[in-house]
Design a protein that fits this description.
Layout: H1 13-32, H2 38-44, H3 55-78, H4 81-98, H5 104-132, H6 135-149, H7 151-166, H8 170-190, H9 205-216, H10 219-249, H11 256-281, H12 283-307, H13 312-338, H14 345-368, H15 376-396
Length: 410
Amino acid sequence: MTTAVPATRDLSKVEFIALVAAIMSLNALAIDVMLPALPYMGEALGISHENERQFVVGIYMLGFGGAQLIFGPIADRYGRRAPLMLGLTIYIAAALAAVFAPNFGALLALRFVQGLGAAATRVVATSTVRDKFSGRAMAEVMSLTFMVFMAIPIVAPGIGQVLLLTGPWHNIFIFMAGLAAVIGLWGFLRLPETLDPALRRPLRFSSVTEGFRIVLTNRVALFYGLAGTFLFGGMFGFISTSQQIFVDIYGLGPYFPLAFALMAGTMAVSSFLNSRFVRRYGMRQLSHLAMFIYLLGTGFLCVLSLLGPVSLPVYFVTLMAVQFIFSWAASNMNSLSMEPLGAVAGTAASVFGFMQTVGGALLGTAIGQQFNGTITPTVGGQVLMACLAIGSVLIAEGGKLFGTGKSGSS
């Protein structure tokens, strides 16, 4: 299972970040570009309850998360390029097949398969960054990657809205397949193999289970991974209900993509600032501070919602602040979970990717299914997720927060 590496000059740091971000963006695209189309899909495929439309996002996330446990050991055995090309092929084929889905069940099945293919993008992107960087340098690159990656949520709902104005919702899947083909060609031509041949692990049951054991018995890595899972659960809960909140509650209608873009833009700016600050203050200082601000912001909205309807300006401004700080917490926690596990980066990326996507999707779906025409279930779920994340970090750090880690470099 190999793919030849075309003879090209070495990637610059800028192109490397852009390419990794583009690979990661295919997952965000598969979620966010769908949001404006959910009502049309539900109507065309005979969905009676509006909350059922959320499964188009949730089932994709289950496939995306579960397959990472497979792609991780494969990436540690065969390198990063071959699993990426395999995953992109599956992603493109499923997207094209979804155009012809005869019913909602078939569409969900194909979305699950599309998620299976997308799993390779998450594993390869994360492990490639860990192959080339460590410590605060890794956190800086991950933040810059996330900044570029956030360009997709800025434009994806708008793209979806334009595609809906120019044709049926099926065109969204054609667009996804086409963009994945372009990014896949870019990766094939330009992405080098970053896994040191000396670090390749045999694809045997004993070796695979040993890799998982290394990951799951590292307390710091495991509980930072869990903290990220809870934060992503809160995020997915918001994403799954965002169309209902902005359109059904606040009546934004066609302006929903603009609201979503503003929030994503805030997160992109946050990621850039994190890349500047993390070198000076470290991953722990920034992520720990971010967790408490996230809890305060979501807690404020939760209390207001219990007292009565929350106006759009208050909700939106507070949500912008919450999304801004989410980027600091999530990006740095991801780096902290990967930092101790460079020798099994592919397996580590798959374990934490599985935790954060499957766990986050299940938690987010549970939050989304509580939607009752108010923002209370969504923001209440985010408060609960923030508390669980803080508890996980306390376990990871032995009850101490705002430290610098054993090496003092994180």
